[in-house]
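Let us work through a complete example step by step.
Step 1: write down the sequence.
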Amino acid sequence: MFFTRTHEFSLPITKDEFKQRLLGKRVKIHNLDFEVIELDYKLNIIPHAEQVTEIKTLPITEVDFKEASGKTKVVVKSKIRTLDAGGPYLIIIFCLFLLIASVTLFFTSDDTMIMYMFLGIGALIFTLFWIRMERGYFDYVRKVRRYVKDRSM
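Step 2: predict the structure and record it as tokens.
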């Protein structure tokens, strides 16, 4: 939902040629190895994170392609790994609860200081979280998408 990104583009090559350019290849992003494999008539770009000791939020990218009149329409869809999804969603839910609490306090309490504190803490946590996601997860998504596009051209 929040962490799914889709990108579409067209190529002047056939579906088989596109598949040959990517299938079985590996790409290294931030010292992490991603491999291109075929599952269910789609290409999947999956991370090899078995040796990673620090906490990382990584994408799994599906590359779907359809051929029409000598051109190939490519849809690159990146989504968060199920294993990694719990932490980011908990942070978003926590920030949402802080927002709800501050709005509730705005209408029910005369003490606006606590309301502003809840609102500020929620905004600060969400901002720091989103900056970290932009430097980590979304950077992986951008670089995998760029790899697919550059490799296929």
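Step 3: interpret the result. DSSP finds four helices and six strands in the chain.
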